[in-house]
Amino acid sequence: MSDIGLIIESLHRAAARVDEVCELLHRAQGELDALRERMRRVLADSQSPEVARAHQISAATVEHLTTALMALMTAGQEARHRATTL
Q: What are phi and psi of 23, to 5 degrees?
């Protein structure tokens, strides 16, 4: 196999791994969103600062997961694009 062929194969493998990580992050994001919703319903009447802080932390975590997911999806798309244009 030529060097270009090896590079293309490597890019496709990298994109496949990125897809796997994206799937895991997407699942974690969904589970955290569900947890936040349950917390919101159960603790809606609580004025405790700890409850507010827990909501802030979970919201920030979802935001970070979303950012990581989008970055990985972009990396996968770029790897696939590069593989098809070599």
A: -60, -45
Provide the residue ranges of all domains of the chain, joining segments of one domain with +: 3-85
- Which of 13, 2, 4, 1 has its CA nearest to residue 79? 13
Contact assessment for residue 30 and residue 61, using Cβ atoms and an 8 Å cutoff: no
Res. 26: pLDDT tops 80? yes
45 has pLDDT over 80: no
Alpha helices (H) along the chain: 3-42, 49-85
Measured CA angle at 17 (ends 14, 74), to 5 deg: 70
- What CATH code would you report for 3-85? 1.20.58
CA–CA gap between residue 22 and residue 20 (Å, rounded) = 5
DSSP 47: -
The amino acid occupying position 78 is: E
Residue 55 near residue 40, CB atoms below 8 Å? yes
Query: What is the chain's alpha carbon radius of gyration, rounded to the nearest angstrom?
Result: 19
